[in-house]
Amino acid sequence: MTIKRLSDKQRLTVNWWLNPKLSRYDAIICDGAVRSGKTMSMSLGFVIWAVSSFNGGAFAICGKTVNSLRRNVITPIIPVLRDIGMLCEEKISRSFMDVTYCGRKNRFYFFGGRDESSAALIQGVTLSGVFLDETALMPRSFVEQALARCSVNGSKMWFNCNPDTPSHWFYNEWIRKAESKNALYLHFTMDDNPSLSEELKNRYKRLYSGAFYDRFVLGKWTASKGIVYPMFDPEKHVFDHEPFCERYIISCDYGTVNPTSMGLWGYSDGIWYRLREYYYASKKEGVCRTDEEHYAALEELAGGKKIEKIIIDPSAASFIECVKRHGKFRTVKADNDVVTGIRRVGSVLKEGRLMFHRSCSGIITEFSLYRWSDKTGSDAPIKDNDHAMDDMRYFVSEVFKSGGDSFFALSVERKI
């Protein structure tokens, strides 16, 4: 695979350290729209800079997790590096790769900055440079620990991210203070990726709405506000006649004091239909139900259909054990990444890949009530009227996770 063409901004991202006017910078920051080609050009530029500037150096390439880093950065970049003559030897079990070029050999370690504890993983290593992908998704402690490791003369720091809320620490401490941090700041749009067709650009414009449209399409650091799913339209998303379905899944948000919400989903011709639901609010009914009573409702909701799996709120340990004890259904603990899940739900709603039977009054009502918190610096929905919203989010995050939240779109030509 070879790169056919780079835009001016992508070329600058790769070569800025060679420019006499720009080489004085200690860091480069690239942010902006999704699919703008910034990640590939940054990762390519980082490795070329490293192997051109050092021999025997140690470098870090960081993502939210090592798995996402391999998917989004390492796997796409290795064929490009090999095509321009570099020897890349990846040690998957030890999370690093050695790159040899023109007699120089350098090592690139892979780190995941998932949470506050991740800072300990990178502590102690001495680095000649660091590339942080998805910087806005990493905790500040991890990022600052990674930067503190760059103590070799001539080391540089490379930051890549999609926008988040304008109160985000990275936006305020690095992007707004780029000049004082001696950092080159480049803002990308989809037009900076020459291989992205107008058809694909329009597709991404259709996928997102609200704050996510501002962030991922326009590349703005925008606060979330208003209704979480403004794209939901009863005229488009509500149906009356049940289709013939070939697959069935149930999602569950479990509560004792709070409501328990379960949805039966059926798949037909590329669309997932919420066919029926169970929504029990103990406060409203005045009586709490036991795990066994909720399980009986689950059996009734399944209605004798072959259920692939039950996706359950990961905090519902007792109910998960109850379902397992009966031995009839396979359980899967739900992914509870709220903001990522909301983004996925918004995308599939806009694509028309989720539909709701008119009898599912619990979830239809919640669509009109589910709102973003208006607290300064908050990027989370209000924890109210959200139980059917949560079981839907669990479902979408499980079923649509293989669709990918990000991939590279850069002008390339495959050699066969």
Describe the structure.
It contains 15 helices and 17 strands. An 8-stranded mixed β-sheet has the order 4-5-6-3-7-8-2-9, with helices on both faces. The chain has a 7-stranded mixed β-sheet with strand order 10-16-13-12-11-14-15. It is of the alpha/beta class. The chain starts with a strand and ends with a strand.
Summarize the structure.
Helices cover about 35% and strands about 20% of the residues. With about 425 residues, the chain is α/β, with parallel strands linked by helices.
Oligomer designation = single chain
Major pleated sheet: 8 strands, mixed
Radius of gyration: 24 Å
The total beta strand count reads 17
Relative helix content:
25-40%
The DSSP helix count reads 15
Binned strand content:
15-25%
- Low-pLDDT ranges: 403-416
Category by helix and strand content: alpha/beta
List the keywords:
416 residues; alpha/beta; eight-stranded mixed beta sheet; seven-stranded mixed beta sheet
How are the SSEs ordered, and which strands pair?
Elements: E1 2-3, H1 8-15, E2 27-32, H2 38-53, E3 58-63, H3 66-83, E4 87-91, E5 96-101, E6 104-112, H4 119-122, E7 129-132, H5 140-148, E8 156-161, H6 169-175, E9 183-188, H7 198-207, H8 210-216, H9 234-237, E10 238-239, E11 247-253, E12 260-268, E13 271-280, H10 282-285, H11 291-302, E14 310-312, H12 317-326, E15 331-333, H13 338-350, E16 354-357, H14 361-369, H15 387-399, E17 412-413
Parallel strand pairs: 2-8, 2-9, 3-6, 3-7, 7-8, 10-16, 11-14, 13-16, 14-15
Antiparallel strand pairs: 1-17, 4-5, 5-6, 11-12, 12-13
Helix pairs in contact: 1-2, 2-3, 11-12, 13-15
